[in-house]
Structures are given as structure tokens and as C-alpha cells.
Amino acid sequence: MGVGLDERCKGLPPGAVYVASFISPDEEAVLVRHLDKGGWSAELKRRVQHFGYRYDYRARAVSPDACLGPLPEWLRAVSGRLVSAGVLGGFPDQVIANEYLPGQGIRAHIDCVPCFGERIVSLSLLSPCEMVFRQKQSGEKLAVLLEPRSVLAMTGPARYQWTHEIPARLSDRVDGAKVERARRISLTFRTVVETTRPVKGAGCAKGRRAATCCMPAKPGVIGRQFPAWRAGHRSDRRSGLPFRRSRASGPR
Length: 252
Ligand SMILES: O=C(O)CCC(=O)C(=O)O
Known about the structure:
Radius of gyration: 18 Å
CATH superfamily: Alpha-ketoglutarate-dependent dioxygenase AlkB-like
Order of helices and strands: EHEHEEEEEEHEEEEHHH
Shape: globular
Number of domains: 1
Number of strands: 12
CATH topology: Jelly Rolls
Bound molecules: 2-oxoglutaric acid
């Protein structure tokens, strides 16, 4: 990956990469504002929002009629940043926002293998919290503190041979000290694999073809859509995200 890797990568499963301070506090605030303007769903114990494709938690699948339409501009802008930094290999077409209040978590899982591509990337916002990894065969356990504005990418063994979870706790122990949790939001970026994409016309807004509704945008297109970001200017007029390039996120 083209970004500066964090020391914490040493304590992660192989194939996992952690990047601290991937976005600025201003960028974080803009993302939280966009999310809070959206419709949080209370279908789980924690609130969620799905973008691009709806993931069916019961069926553990992305069904052919699950297309919600293209990612909103503000998510495409962050995606562009992840691609440019080398954290994502290509543009994602599915994002889930998870909101965790103190005491809430997500149980141990491996992201749906037939549904999603080989790279899963999670951007953390607001409160820090611990993520726990367990090797499926050996049971080996590793934990990492996900700081606000950091990015965690999972590929290879970390993606396929280790489960990850956020224990439902009120606080975490960090270097022996108790750290109370507050509201945390994560944005997890994925690519729906070709075979689960809807066929032409299925599940997309009326009058739109699946190809235009659901296919990930090409990097060049995003570059044209976000010229301010591309030039490293302060902000993008349409998404409202201040896209100043940082050391951590600049292309190498
Ligand atoms: O909250 C996170 O950082 C991880 C979310 C996650 O594991 C998931 O959505 O499958």
C-alpha cells in the first residue's frame, strides 16, 4: 500500500494494515454530519446505514435486488481518497455505516466471502474502541485499538482466516488504563463481486440500467468529478469534504 503504515500493524494478523489519522477532524465532522442527515436503520442492536447495495444479515448475502443506487458523492469522494492512497485497490460499490453506542458491538465474523471482494476497509469515526481478531484454526487472539479517523484494511489471511469483532463493552483497556467508550461510527468499504451484481435493470431505480446504477465508478471519472480534491485544494464544493492531502493519505 502507498500510505505510511502504522507501528500498530505489527500486532495485527497478516494481511491487515492500520493507518492512523487518515482523515482530519474537519473531514470526520463532515462525514458524521452526512451520516446523521441519512436514515439510520434500527434493524439490528446497533444502528446501520447501507449504501450502494443492501446487505441481507439474515441470508448473509447480497441478493440480486439489493441495489440501492450509486454511492453518494461524499462517499465516492472518500473512496477516491482510499484508492489514491493505495488502501483500496479499486472503487468500492458497497458501504455500511455502523453506529456503536457504549455497550454495543459487532460479533465475531468474516465478511461474506462470496458476496464481497478480497479487500475490506473500515474507517473509524468519533470514539476509539478495540477490535479483536481470532485465527479460525488456532484460536490465536490479537487486539488493536481503532482510533478515530484511522483506517483498517483487511486482505489475505486477515480477511479470510481471522474473524474480527468489536466486543460489546462500555470501556476498553489500553496499555493498562481504562478508556470509556462514547459514540463510534465506522464506514466499511467493500466491492460486491461480479456474480452477485444485479442483472440489467434489476433492483435499480426506475428507468436506470443496472450498469449505471450499481457499477463502481472508474478512478478517472471520480478524478473529473472532484477536481478540487485531485488538485489537493482545501475543499470539494459538492461533497463539502475538505480534501487537503495529508502525509498519511497522499499517493506514494
Ligand atoms: O466497525 C467496524 O470497524 C467493523 C465493522 C464490520 O466488521 C462490518 O461491518 O462487518
